[in-house]
Amino acid sequence: MSTRNRPLSPHLDIYRLPLLAIMSITHRITGVGLVIGLFALTWWLCAAANGPEYFSFVQAVFGSFLGKLFLFGWTLALFFHLSHGIRHLLWDSGWGFEIPQAYLSAKVALVAAVALTVIAWIIGLA
């Protein structure tokens, strides 16, 4: 076998993923995160049905720093998945296939996800 002096494929540390690819990957990851959050919600509901002692324990878990961090991440995943899903609905209607529109809708979805998360937590903490 002779070796050829051909360039290698760019590795992930060299290649920069475009925003649209990052949005697609994040949409899938947040879908998995939402399922994990549903298991946490089920645990909370079962604790409420189990009695006040166990429910106060679960409330303390979710009220801790790590619990609030988990709930914040779950809320962000929920609103990101929602806003990106609305973006997909727009694509299904035939709008937004051009590259500038796709990038604009991606940025709008990101801003909407962050804004809705912050608004939900401000309202929830008030």
Automatic annotation (TrEMBL):
Entry membrane topology: Multi-pass membrane protein
The protein's required cofactors: heme
Subcellular locations according to the entry: Membrane
Residues that span the membrane, as ranges: 20-45, 57-82, 102-123
Principal localisation: membrane
Recorded superkingdom: Bacteria
Keyword set, alphabetical order: Heme, Iron, Membrane, Metal-binding, Transmembrane, Transmembrane helix
Primary role: Membrane-anchoring subunit of succinate dehydrogenase (SDH).
UniProt similarity note: Belongs to the cytochrome b560 family.
Subunit-level organization: Part of an enzyme complex containing four subunits: a flavoprotein, an iron-sulfur protein, plus two membrane-anchoring proteins, SdhC and SdhD. The complex can form homotrimers.
Protein name per the record: Succinate dehydrogenase cytochrome b556 subunit
Organism: Magnetospirillum sulfuroxidans
The organism's taxonomic lineage, starting at the top: Bacteria, Pseudomonadati, Pseudomonadota, Alphaproteobacteria, Rhodospirillales
Gene of this entry: sdhC
